[in-house]
Specification:
279 residues, globular
């Protein structure tokens, strides 16, 4: 498959630093998140087994710390590049129709992921059930921290790193399918639960495609935020016994929203791809 077009005056970038970062940064982020959780648990007087149980404070802290670490890693590594940070991370806005159509099309991917997840896992795993319980039971200041971390900070941090720092470089050296799939696979693996990963992977591919098609990580951040917001709000209405599934009445609004998003999806796919402008 053909490489993406490049500015004829730009040097071919090295691939190994970005590849090393794609492996090393998630490991470091995991270590930092675990340390933060253990410190929080000790401060709260929680035993180790309690920390492993569904806990809004622990979940919110894990998302907050890991997402912030991804953002700092992306910004720090991009600052070491010879390119301006805005170009290195694709911090640019395309025309408004790209933003609106690609963001509004995102529920189609979420709907497909939910159907796939429900078919492969008719009953939610203990991890997913615990995650849903956390989202349903959280209230007060803890709920605010958890929701902001999930809907705002997580999309910013994760997309700056995976679709901004990593994929931007991969696109210049690899076939576009490979450049999208590799970061998507690693992004999926960091969620560390099989059922969760099955739901995450289709969105990861969509995020990579949107970043390539619009040449903007900002649009992807909005898509990610919209996707997470739907998941968080939807969790408030799921059945405590069945979770999100084809037999759950709360699944119907999600399918309706996904169906309504087909029109913007078709329109988005008809837009010409924004051409890259390398550093």
């Amino acid at each position: 498959m053909a490489q993406l077009p490049r500015d004829e005056h730009s040097a071919v970038p090295r691939l190994w630093p970005t590849s090393f970062a794609l492996v090393g940064v998630p490991v470091l982020v995991l270590v930092v998140a675990v340390i933060a959780i253990l410190v929080y648990g000790r401060a709260q007087g929680l035993h180790l087994e309690k920390i492993n149980e569904p806990n809004p404070g622990v979940s919110g802290l894990a998302v907050l710390v890991s997402s912030t670490a991804f953002a700092l890693a992306a910004l720090g590594l991009a600052a070491l590049s010879s390119e301006p940070i805005r170009a290195r991370l694709r911090l640019r806005w395309p025309q408004l129709q790209y933003v609106l159509l690609f963001v509004l099309a995102t529920p189609v991917i979420g709907g497909l992921s939910s159907v796939l997840d429900s078919v492969l896992f008719p009953e939610p795993t203990p991890y997913i059930q615990g995650l849903l319980e956390v989202l349903r039971a959280t209230s007060g200041a803890t709920a605010i921290v958890l929701f902001i971390s999930t809907i705002v900070i997580a999309p910013i941090g994760e997309e700056l790193f995976f679709r901004g720092y990593v994929q931007t470089r991969f696109e210049r050296r690899l076939p576009i399918v490979v450049a999208i799939v590799i970061p998507a696979v690693v992004f999926t693996l960091i969620h560390m639960n099989v059922q969760h990963m099955i739901g995450v992977f289709p969105f990861a591919l969509w995020a990579g495609y949107v970043a390539w098609r619009t040449q903007s990580v900002l649009v992807v951040i909005l898509c990610h935020a919209y996707n997470n917001a739907i998941s968080v709000v939807g969790a408030q209405f799921t059945s405590p016994t069945t979770g999100v599934g084809l037999d759950d009445p709360s699944f119907v609004p999600l399918l309706v929203l996904a169906a309504a998003s087909i029109v913007p999806l078709v329109l988005a796919l008809r837009l010409p791809r924004v051409q890259p402008t390398w550093g």
